[in-house]
Amino acid sequence: MAANGSGLPIRLSQGEPLSIALALETGSFQGRRADWYVVAETPVGPYHFDLAFASAPGDWQPGLQPTLVAPLVPLGRLKVDESVPPLGSYTLTFAVSLEGSVYLDSVPVDVIP
User: Fold this and answer.
1) pTM for the full model?
2) Fewer CB near the last or first residue (10 Å), C or N of the chain?
């Protein structure tokens, strides 16, 4: 997972855009059905990126739900969202739940005045 091109913690000024990109190497798990999660832990609780939400190509919704339930496929760098987050501290996480195991990658983001 990358936030503004970095897998390291980042700091944004208020009003600055945040771009979220994912990458995945599936190895021997390619084609196996999995729950895919794109989650933001926010000051007001977790939000998940919902591909089925009415506004294309997706939107953030409260709670913790899979973003997608589908077979695993390798991803190069896939941009999933670009938005301007409100002030606060966030942890962005991309996770795949497969056969009782969870594989995840997180990036902390601080938005300051």
Assistant:
1) 0.88
2) C
Q: Which amino acid is at 31?
A: G
Write the DSSP string, 15-63: T--EEEEEEE--GGGTT-EEEEEEEEEETTEEEEEETTSSSTT-EEEES
Non-local CB neighbours of 24 within 8 Å, separated by 6+ positions: 72, 73, 74, 75, 94, 96
Full domain range(s) for residue 54 = 2-112
Tell me the CATH number at 25. 2.60.40.3880
* pLDDT per residue as tens digits for the range 11-31: 999 999 999 999 999 999 999
- pLDDT digits over 85-97, tens only? 899 999 999 999 9
Q: How is the beta sheet containing 18-24 ordered, strand by strand? A: 2-3, 18-24, 75-83
Per-residue pLDDT at 44 = 94
Contact yes or no for 85/91 (Cβ under 8 A): no
Domain count, the chain: 1
